[in-house]
Structures are given as C-alpha cells and as structure tokens.
Write a structure and sequence with these properties.
Layout (H helix, E strand, L loop, with lengths): L10 E4 L7 H4 L6 E5 L3 H4 L2 H8 L5 E4 L8 H13 L4 E6 L1 H13 L6 H6 L10 E5 L11 E6 L4 E6 L6 E4 L9 H19 L7 H23 L4 H14 L13 H13 L3 H15 L5 H12 L6 H18 L13 H14 L11 H10 L5
Parallel strand pairs: 1-8, 2-3, 2-4, 4-5, 5-8
Antiparallel strand pairs: 6-7
Helix pairs in contact: 4-5, 7-8, 7-9, 7-11, 8-9, 10-11, 11-13, 11-15, 12-13, 14-15
Bound molecules: 5,6-dihydroxy-NADP (NZQ) and zinc ion.
C-alpha cells in the first residue's frame, strides 16, 4: 500500500424528507446564491422543498447551468455573485450544477477568468463555502473535490480539482424518481466506471480497497435490474445513490494506484460530439480493458472471479469473459458500446489522438495511454467485430 493522507469533511445528509434540513444546516448570516440547471427541479417538487426550507431568507437564484457545464454560462454566475457580494453557494441539481458551482465558488474571490482557473487549479486562492442538494446519483461531486468544465469556444472539456469540499450534501433518493431512464443508465455506468478507474489496475495493493470496490460493483450489478423494473423502488435507488457517492469520495482510493484513462478519452468524445458522459464510458471502458488486457491481467482475473463468478478457462479466456460480461452489463442498461452506433468514426479518433499527442499527455496507472494508445483503444470500439 502506498502512503496516503485521507480527509473528507463533507457532512452527508441522506434520506426521505431531508431537504427540509437546509433551514438548519445553512448558516444564518450568509449572502446566499442558489444555483440550478435547466428546470427539472421545478417539475419534481425539489424547487418547492428548497424554497420552503429557505423561507424568510434573502438569496439570489442563478438558473441555466447545463449538462457538461460551460464556462461561458459560469462566467455569468460569477459576475452576478460578485455584484451581489455572495459568500455562500447552494447547488440544487445533478453533477453538472454541483461542478459548475465549484468553479463559481473558486472564482468569486479571484480576479482571474474562470477558464484560467480550470487550466491551472494552483491559481485558486480563497474559496467561498458551498453545499449541494443532489438529484442525480453519478458523479460523487457531492462529496469530492472534482469538477469537470467545458468550453464552448474551444470544444474542450477538462477535469479540475478544487481545494474545498461541499460543507454538506443532502441526498434524498425520492428526488431521483423523476430521472429519465437514460440518465439512470448513464449514472449507473458512470458510477461503475469510477470504481473501475480506481480498481482495475494491478492486484495486491490493498485487499481492503479491493473488497470495498468489489462491494460497490456487485451492488450496482444487483441493483440495476431492480431499478430498471421500477425506478420508484426507494431502497434500490437509495443503494445506487449511496454507491455513487462512495464510488468517488476517496474511500476506495486509499493507498492504491488509479487509472482515469477511460474518463480522459470519454471527455474528448463529449467535447467533440456532446455525447453524454456515462455513454462515452460504456463505449471506452471495455475497449480499454481489451487493449491493456495483459497489463491489467491480475486484476481482470480477480474481478472476473469475484464480480462475475468466472473461474474456468485459461487466464486469457477468463479475462476476455470478464470484459464481455462488463460490456453486456452496459448493454443491459440500454447503452451503446460501439462508436459506430453513435456515428462517430475515424476523423474523431484521429483528432483525439492528435489532441493527446500535442498536449503531451499520457494517462492510466502505467502512464502509457498517450495519443497513439488512445487511438488504438478507440479503434477497438469503433464497431462490433
Ligand atoms: O438541468 P436540469 O433541468 O436539472 O436536468 C438535468 C440534466 O438535463 C437532469 N436531471 C438531474 N436531476 C434530475 C434530472 N431530471 C429529472 N429528475 C431529476 N432528479 O439530468 C440531466 C443531466 O444532468 P447532469 O447534472 O449533467 O448529469 P450528471 O450528474 O451525470 O453530471 C454529468 C457531469 O458531471 C461530470 C461529467 O463529466 C459531466 O460534465 N463529472 C463530474 C465528476 C465529479 N465532479 O467528480 C466526475 C465524473 O466522472 C464526471 O466526469
Ligand atoms: Zn465519470
């Protein structure tokens, strides 16, 4: 196990009716800005619950943080927040609203353009405190330091890390009952791949981290059919929601190496084609595992046995079977697993290869997923064989 420091200060408030807790959890004397997406909260009762909890307070609302939040939109929120001297933020919505709110919180006390902050997180100085009400389980943004921000002008999408976590996050599984089926599929896949990015490296680093990660993967595999059968199944939604939080809040990453090459390629597919985040991952992860099969062999065999019960065959056959089962799981969610299904072809692959090479980046636990390797992965998932 590698050395590590762990601290996660976000207070997690989980369960039915918990949005009412905002009244007590938000400090009394702050100049509050509440941030929203495109309006789903107005149709599922979340907005009304938030307004009831904020009754008697003075606050500013900012609407319109879109999926894959754009810096162009967030600049407007920063300008409004500066004008109103906002000193506390509350995000109400999915991961995009939470991520956008993190960049607003990092920009309010800065003279820099928010995109400069995305490109160089080291330039973040004092950050305004913020909290979240999460309505979509997927990103783990409610309890982590990450944000992923897009730039319309340049067709870029980059992850960043902020120095301050949400003060608290409220997760009421009932708020997810209004999610469209495809958002649930994207969210389950995103959660699965977050765990895979922290798990599918080399075996033998930490039995404890392995068991926790496998526990989340198994929970997703067992829970997904229940949710597909009835998305108002509270207990199933609650397990999925908590899996999403636990999948990317640092708990399964202590002392182990991490990958993140699948996400890095997925972000390019979103930046270039607007493909939803979870959908990009369903396409890239199986191909990534196929291309890096030998490097990841020890973990693939462990994963195959413990998550899918695969115990017979040669190591190569067992690893292939584990990857096939993963791809079948994504397909069972209703997701595409090949680029051709989304009309993405060679021109995009060449552009992603070019971008990685010109940036001089290489991802993965072995730091070997560079431009050419990303091209190889993408050609592997171009079309069904
Ligand atoms: O905008 P509104 O109207 O609220 O609608 C949203 C949006 O259209 C809707 N929605 C959310 N909650 C709903 C709902 N509709 C009905 N009922 C509800 N309860 O769902 C749509 C998608 O929302 P979005 O917030 O974009 O989805 P998600 O939470 O999956 O976030 C995706 C973004 O997070 C980034 C992704 O790259 C992407 O930009 N990620 C953030 C991470 C992090 N902060 O740690 C890690 C992830 O790997 C990921 O990259
Ligand atoms: Zn993700």
């Amino acid at each position: 196990m590698k050395n590590f420091t762990f601290q996660n200060t976000t207070k997690l408030i989980f369960g039915r009716g918990t949005i009412a807790r905002l009244t007590k959890e938000l400090p009394a004397d702050v100049r509050l800005m509440v941030t929203f997406g495109g309006g789903s909260v107005k149709t599922n009762g979340v907005y009304d619950q938030v307004m009831a909890a904020l009754k008697g307070r003075d606050f500013v609302e900012f609407w319109g943080i879109e999926p894959n939040p754009k810096v162009e939109t967030l600049r407007k929120a920063v300008a409004l927040g500066k004008e109103k001297k906002v000193d506390y933020l509350l995000s109400v919505g999915g991961g995009s609203v939470a991520d956008g709110t993190k960049l607003i919180a990092a920009s309010l006390r800065s003279a820099l353009d928010p995109w400069d902050i995305v490109l160089d997180n080291g330039k973040i100085g004092e950050m305004v405190p913020y909290a979240t009400v999460m309505t979509l389980p997927a990103t783990g943004s409610e309890m982590n330091l990450n944000a992923v921000i897009s730039n319309l002008a340049t067709d870029e999408k980059f992850g960043m890390a902020v120095p301050r976590r949400p003060e608290f996050s409220i997760l009421d599984p009932e708020t997810t009952f209004s999610l469209p089926d495809e958002q649930i599929a994207y969210g389950i896949c995103d959660t699965f791949v977050h765990v895979a990015e922290q798990y599918m490296t080399t075996a033998g680093q930490s039995p404890l981290m392995d068991r926790w990660a496998e526990g989340i993967l198994l929970t997703l595999v067992e829970t997904a059919p229940k949710i597909r059968a009835d998305k108002r199944n509270y207990d199933a939604m609650a397990d999925y929601m908590l899996s999403a939080t636990m999948g990317l809040n640092g708990f399964i990453a202590m002392g182990v190496s991490q990958d993140w090459a699948t996400h890095s390629i997925g972000h390019e597919l979103t930046a270039l084609h607007g493909i939803s985040h979870g959908q990009t991952l369903a396409i890239v992860l199986p191909a990534m595992m196929r291309v890096l099969r030998d490097q990841k062999m020890s973990k693939l065999l462990q994963y195959g046995e413990r998550v899918w019960g695969i115990v017979s065959g040669t190591p190569a056959e067992r690893a292939e079977a584990a990857i096939d089962r993963t791809e079948e799981f994504f397909r069972s969610l209703g997701l595409a697993t090949r680029l051709s299904e989304l009309n993405v072809g060679e021109a995009t692959i060449a552009e992603i290869e070019r971008r990685f090479s010109s940036r001089g980046v290489a991802f993965g636990e072995g730091r070997n997923v560079d431009g050419p390797k990303a091209g190889e992965v993408l050609r592997k998932c171009l079309r069904a064989n």
